[in-house]
Write a structure and sequence with these properties.
This protein has about 190 residues and is α/β, with parallel strands linked by helices. The chain has a single domain, classed as Rhodanese-like domain (Oxidized Rhodanese, domain 1, 3-Layer(aba) Sandwich). It has five helices and seven strands; from the N terminus they run H-E-H-E-E-E-H-E-H-E-H-E. It has helices spanning about 1-15, 50-60, 110-120, 140-150, 160-170; strands spanning about 45-50, 65, 90, 95, 130-135, 155-160, 175. A five-stranded parallel β-sheet has the order 1-6-5-2-4, with helices on both faces. The N and C termini lie far apart (about 65 Å).
């Protein structure tokens, strides 16, 4: 009897209809907090990419890939002599990493850093394809893609699955370093 009840429950659990999650609406402005939560399915003015579509663009080398994952800050007040090593960031090979540029409000220097990074990635061409990503369920990439549109870029693609979707598809990743900020060398810190 218990085996039959268990079988019925197991069958029901695997055949029960999956209820779709409610859509997340696009905000009027930028997302200002709680950046690691479900994101919208759309971004007005941008093309939303699946992992397969992002891979096609990457393999054809027809777009510039921009990673906006934040960089963890060096802890303050480390004891003297403590060796600090950043956690490595593995992103889509060939990407430009512009950390901390996906927050809802950017300091003037960070916004300038984003503008210069996008100009470099696009070769100064506002019609060049920019593929902006971070990780799955990360509003940072949504904000950064929206900001690129506000700067006049006309061919913006948002890749919401980011490196999580990329790695799930067993696609290659490469260790990267952030794009230097004004006045910094190749490896800021």
């Amino acid at each position: 009897m218990w085996k039959l009840a268990g079988l019925i429950l197991a069958t029901f659990a695997t055949t029960a209809p999956a209820y779709p999650q409610p859509l997340v609406p696009e905000p009027d402005g930028y997302r200002m907090d709680d950046y690691r939560t479900r994101v919208p399915d759309t971004l007005a003015g941008a093309r939303v990419l699946t992992t397969a579509e992002a891979e096609t663009i990457w393999r054809a080398r027809t777009g510039a890939f921009i990673d906006v994952l934040p960089r963890p800050p060096k802890p303050q007040n480390l004891p003297p002599g403590t060796v600090w090593r950043d956690k490595p960031r593995f992103n889509i090979p060939g990407s430009i990493w512009l950390p901390d540029t996906g927050y809802g409000k950017l300091a003037e220097a960070t916004e300038d850093y984003l503008r210069r990074g996008l100009a470099r990635a696009s070769g100064g061409n506002n019609a060049a394809l920019l593929v902006i990503y971070c990780q799955t369920d990360c509003w940072m990439s949504w904000n950064a893609a929206k900001r690129a549109l506000s700067y006049g870029y006309t061919n913006v693609a948002w890749f919401p699955e980011g490196t999580d979707g990329w790695e799930r598809a067993s696609l290659p990743v490469a260790e990267s370093q952030p794009e230097p900020r004004a006045g910094e060398g190749a490896s800021p810190r």
